[in-house]
Amino acid sequence: MINVAILGYGTVGSGVFKIINENNSHISRRAGDDVKVKYVLDLRDFPGDPVEDILVHDVDIIMNDETVDVVVEVMGGVEPAYTFVKRALEAGKSACTSNKELVAKHGVELLQIARDNNVNFFFEASVGGGIPIIRPLIECLTVDHIEEIQGIMNGTTNYILTKMEDEGADFDTVLKDAQDKGYAERNPEADIEGYDACRKIAILTSLAYEKQVDFEDIYTEGITKITTADFDYMKKIGASIKLLGMARKDDGVTYSMVAPFVVYNDNPLYNVKDVFNAILVKGDMLGEVMFYGKGAGSLPTASAVVSDVVDAVKRQGYTEKIFWNDTKRILGTVDAFTTPYFVRVGLGGEDAASVKAAVESHFGNVEYIDGVKSDEVAFITKVMSGSEYDKAAEGLNVVSRIRVSK
Length: 406
Known about the structure:
The protein is of the alpha/beta class. It has helices at 11-22, 24-31, 59-63, 81-90, 100-116, 125-128, 134-140, 155-167, 171-180, 189-192, 195-209, 228-237, 298-314, 352-363, 386-393; strands at 2-7, 35-41, 55-56, 68-73, 94-97, 121-122, 146-152, 211-212, 219-220, 239-250, 253-264, 276-283, 287-294, 325-328, 338-339, 341-346, 367-368, 376-380, 384-385, 398-404. Strands 7, 9, 10, 11, 12, 13, 16, 17, 18 and 20 form a ten-stranded mixed sheet that branches. Strands 3-2-1-4-5-6 form a six-stranded parallel sheet, with helices on both faces. The mean pLDDT is 95.
């Protein structure tokens, strides 16, 4: 018998409880042992809920029970999640989590504690919710050098951008709609400013390139400056705009960032809409492979967590080798990151021909996008670094600029 304790009975925790109970025979067969939820920890009471009989309010009951084999942390936030998971690992219990903040900040440390205690720390659900991405990176793509990762890693921002594109609605209107539907929090800053995606790409960059990447070092730009006019231009060139988490290696330099990108219709991420997420991985041998699905929600995320529980049971007695060490990886600066740019320049009282001449004197040959707004000139630049762009843009009346996915 494998006893599981769930820390937190919110959206994901209740999903974990439901899946283990309702699919118990299937899960136990796959795990090779009977799996049972022995405790659920929460500060609240849930009268009439099936969880009532196993609900506890004191974490020490779980930590001091030697029959608890796996602890599932789905509380969110760094504390007390970090303290609880660390205690569980040190007590010889494997731990599984969906907590991206915890993994981004303390993942490498918790992996080492798990190794020291011959148990496992798994976190499949911390990046793509129900989308499998962690395990493919550490188990299935082992022969490839990862050249690049591009991902739509936040369903809220993807929903907002989809509505702006398809319905022509402005950002504020769509944000309120997302909040009304429960896709966005009352305080949506973590989503719309890119902080949520930043923690996820920090985890993936650390795993792909095997050294610690601190999310504080990742350049992060949100979607609040994107307008419906930007999408009008996109329709002219068969492209869309997505908030991407990106990791890339160029000439031995690792880059990691979160920002809006122009994505053309030959990129598989182009068709990822609404609250769906997708992560595109480019390996030097495999080429491109994409992982797509629901990146959040009770049952999709809980499904990934329970898969980790099954893996933890199957690996009792030894720790899975995950290549992520605590040596800090120094990232290339955003000034050195190379990409084309989509740029809009206001006429400022001049005629279009004069502004185009100025644009070409600054940027060289560009690809113009005409026929959208009469009071500005829009174009796609050649591939250039961030510092080259900043220098070229000096003296021009730039309305907006968005990087273009190569």
